[in-house]
């Protein structure tokens, strides 16, 4: 009996030494991150439209039924489980974790068994944190997807996964964005709300707009906008734009040091999303641009309808959501 008690005592001591060690390691890592200015330097965003759609469905159900199954947290859990590679995605994994949540487990506790869960929370949060949540239409509250496809409803486009393809204008470089082929004049919609950080001519992008999200973590770059009338009337740097608002028109400007020149062969919108965890990443060496192909597919379910007004006469293109003017 005495021997057993001794053994148990030794076990307790060993366990507390281990726990103390783990706690020290964790606080050390936290300190390291805080004092050394450590920040995320790379994000490989491989989350598929299928996984985002399934996860949106689960988070809508959770919202209605009062469970804590946040969209970003669920995807971060899956990201940690798959080591960031959503080729391994199975709906079953999502259903299983949601069942655990429904039976009372906390998503953070379930995620905590993966070392990289906090990384994915921060990385995927930087991409998606504003995309799903509460929003208001005419004073009525809704919950769901509140980010938009960059192409207005009713306008044709086609695209393929062209992230990382090589481009040679100016210098050999990689394509750090996504091209949506469409026709000149197609209304371009703000994917997310934010403020206009850059607007005007750029040798590569032609007429372009840069919009920064309110949390400062995303920089949206929309380029090759239409010659002569690239932007929605009166838009300027510093303005606030709202998700779903028309910001400009598809075109073929760019690849020229001279302003207002069409040097792009195929009319298209080039858009890119840059993630910024530290201000030095905006224009420095550690720039992070993500592949937007799957994201574009996911956002295609939320296309803003527009009413086109030509010379004061309304031509209804889609349902009555937003009005903008095309000057003649
Ligand atoms: Zn492009």
Structure description:
The chain is α+β, with helices and mostly antiparallel strands. The protein is built from seven helices and 16 strands. It has helices spanning 2-35, 49-65, 71-82, 91-102, 107-111, 117-128, 293-299; strands at residues 132-137, 140-145, 166-167, 173-174, 178-181, 187-189, 194-202, 206-212, 218-223, 240-241, 246-249, 268-275, 288-289, 307-310, 313-316, 323-326. Strands 5, 7, 8, 9, 10, 12 and 13 form a seven-stranded antiparallel β-sheet that branches. Helix 2 (49-65) runs parallel beside helix 4, helix 2 crosses helix 7 and helix 3 (71-82) packs across helix 6 (117-128). The protein is globular and about 60 Å long. 34% of the residues are buried. Bound molecules: zinc ion (ZN). Residues 175, 177, 179, 270 line the site of zinc ion (ZN).
